[in-house]
Amino acid sequence: MAEPRRTRGRPPKYPVDEVRDRLMNSAKSALRENGLSFGVDVATLEGSIEEAEVPRGISYRTWRAAAVQDESPQDAFRHAAIADLARNAQDDWLPTCRTFIREQIAAHQRGETNLQQILRQIGVFGHELVNDTLEIRLVQAFRATAATQTNTPAAVIQALHDGKEKIITEYTELVQQLADEVDVQLRDGREARDFTEAFFAVTQGIMQQVDGLPPRQVPRPTGPNGETEQWTLAGISIEALVRQFFDWSPEAF
Predict the structure, then answer these.
(1) By C-alpha distance, which of 185, 180, 189 is closest to 252?
(2) Which of 88, 82, 89 has its CA nearest to residue 39?
(3) Which end of the chain lies in a sparser environment, N or C, as judged by fewer CB atoms within 10 Å?
(4) DSSP string spanning 7-27?
(5) What is the pTM of this model?
(6) What is the pLDDT of residues 64-83, one digit of tens each?
């Protein structure tokens, strides 16, 4: 019987499974060593020049002059776009938060709701806001990427810091407005800004849903007569933070 004919080409050095494992280990090692990268290839200088209908020469001179160290005009342009989003994107959605809190305060003044119900609604609102606002998810992605990088441009780091400060300051004002309306006080040694920092840290991950999937709901007997109501994990977390920072518990009201 004739021997099976060997296929042409160099025989593999490793079995397929081992090749796969070695490649995966190499890729994971590269990620650990280098972190993620800002995947903003769609934001090209050439494409933006064409879209904005501005002269090519002055466009390249502008970003060549703005480049830091060995940045190319393209990199300088992309980093500037990231920084602008990180610093200013919240200006487009913070007004929605102000409107929401004003509506909740007005409902409380009419006797239609209480603080616990407002906290439940904040959890729902937060998920809807993140799901409907691409800019929030972009900035969250920028933060996650910067956290893995050792060479994130200083302008991007500063912009991420400035953007977060703007959000924390705004949210702290809204927290104080709501606390004043429902007449709850901070516990001794607690600060409203610390509450907001904790709120930001706890909820930003919970509210980040993949592909707009609905948030997980947890039934709780919080209705006016003990009826079961659905709470998001964000809402439950917010209530827990309020209990820790403010002299309040729903049982006392």
Answers:
(1) 185
(2) 82
(3) N
(4) PSSPPPSS-HHHHHHHHHHHH
(5) 0.83
(6) 988 988 889 988 888 888 89
